[in-house]
Structure prediction request, 98 residues.
Amino acid sequence: MSKKLRVSAESIPELRDFLAGADVDMGCRPVAVKRGDRYVTEVISDDDELARLGRRRAGGVRIEVLEEMPSAARRLRMVPSGNRFAGGVVPRGYGRKE
Prediction:
């Protein structure tokens, strides 16, 4: 199962070097934010890669599991199969309505 992780290090180069060899999803625009005296970013990783990250963690790098991410199949089961506009109610809010 995938997990959302918070990875932090004392410097940007240390964080970059650690994540360079990692098989993690950093999103389309990864960002490292300075929090206190550390640089922090969030990534998504599977259990096997999390174990590898834990083994190769060195220096001041910290890894914190934030949450477990449901699989794609599980997320699809959460979406209703009915037509939510069948009652004739027009969607409201931003966007283009035709």
